Request: fold
Amino acid sequence: MNIGEVAERSGLPAKTIRYYEDIGLIKPLRDANGYRAFRESDLHKLAFLGRARALGFPIEDCRTLLQLYEDDSRTSAEVKQIAKAHLAQIEQKIADLTEMRETLGTLVRACAGDNRPDCPILESLSRDPA
Amino acid sequence: MNIGEVAERSGLPAKTIRYYEDIGLIKPLRDANGYRAFRESDLHKLAFLGRARALGFPIEDCRTLLQLYEDDSRTSAEVKQIAKAHLAQIEQKIADLTEMRETLGTLVRACAGDNRPDCPILESLSRDPA
DNA sequence: CTTGACCTTCCAGTGACTGGAAGGCCTAAG
DNA sequence: CTTAGGCCTTCCAGTCACTGGAAGGTCAAG
Reply:
């Protein structure tokens, strides 16, 4: 398989696949002409990585998860620990964003949005909170 | 005021303040010795920027908001439009993260987290969704 | 005079790609 | 045989908003 087909079948851009090879996540073979020659196992790994990335795991977590996946002597505790830590990060981000949404939503609702200069949004940004 | 005091009073790291000067958000004066000499107005702008950044506005939005703040002929509609667009981004991010949380939460709860290798998390990442 | 806390600039790195240039390879049509 | 196009290759630079660190200048106190 050439990179175009793998990109199509994995849903990842060719650029991303090359990047994943660069950082050692996959090691496709090479044809005589220098083209990458992907095996089904490479495709499977890329799909795995795509799904892990879609769940927001950072690349280094993805690397570890892939290693665990290929390690028969893994324990589910190792996997769960990574996932739990990542879940906590997600929850923290949601909390931060939710607070931003509330503050900003309040300000947006308070702003007339007309052609006058008075604006609660700018007032809030410029006010001294002390 | 030197940068240390401004950092303290604005809550922004000195590095960040230098960076903001680099990209033209502030233009502090200079003392004879080359040290930056901040006016109260610089401090005020930095505090404004800090609050805008805390609401998640990208730097270019912050630049625009600061310009609008200083422009007496602005309209609140201009400000509101920026804020609304950013709010939509925040809401999109929350939606994405919430979906990740649900999927990942389900997987984490399904995983025994013991010393056996069987793991629903890895199974989910490796399964062909077709 | 020295110490230590400031301040300066400049360079490099972060994370995870993404865009683009310059050039090689392969297939099919004219 | 040539040419066109659509692949593929590598390498470099840019994204975003900082952040760390090195190398060196300045200033106030002891």
In short: Chain B touches chain A through 53 residues (CB under 8 Å). The mean pLDDT of chain B is 96.
